[in-house]
Amino acid sequence: MQDSESKGFVIRPAVPTDCEIITEFNIRLASETEDHELDHATLTAGVAALLEDSSKGRYFIAENEANEIIGQLMFTFEWSDWRNGMMWWLQSVYVRADARKQGVFSGLLNHVTELATAASEVRGIRLYVDNENETARQTYRARGFEDPNYRVMETLFSD
Asked: Which CB contacts under 8 angstroms, 24+ apart, belong to 100-107?
């Protein structure tokens, strides 16, 4: 799929040279939404690994007319045996503060949704959101996401 343009910005696949700004946006995301400080070196390596290997997932970015990256969205893959297909998990969704409420997230989501619906093996899109982040929850609900009544649980082996 080609780059798409909407409301003064372009959505495009991220490339390895975008690693630094994606890393910065992820640091802001963790701080703003969870008051969590990420390890810069680990995060940079993680972003770079995904940008080099699309089997891990894909980043898309929104770029304004001044060629500044103003938003990002990543998705990863999960096989669903119940659905005999892939679920795409949205992650690392971030829009720069001065670009919020301008359709950037909607543009990113619409782009990825178009890709997902065009791929015959994709059965749906999921995401997780912090229970305390009511603004994000309202944003996702307004775009058709529902609470499936599951709770995410995890065991982390490193931070």
From this structure: 102/7, 102/8, 103/6, 103/7, 104/9, 104/62, 104/70, 104/71, 105/71, 105/73, 105/139, 106/143, 107/4, 107/6, 107/7, 107/9, 107/11, 107/62, 107/71
The answer to whether residue 158 is domain-embedded is no
SS3 111: helix
Chain-centroid distance, C-alpha 12: 13
Element (H, E) at 137: helix 134-142
Whole-model pTM over 0.85: yes
148 occurs within a structural domain: no
The closest of 62, 74, 65, 71 to 28, measured between CA atoms, is 71
Point out which residues pair with 10 in neighbouring strands.
5, 63
Residue 152: inside a domain: no
pLDDT of the residue at 60: 98
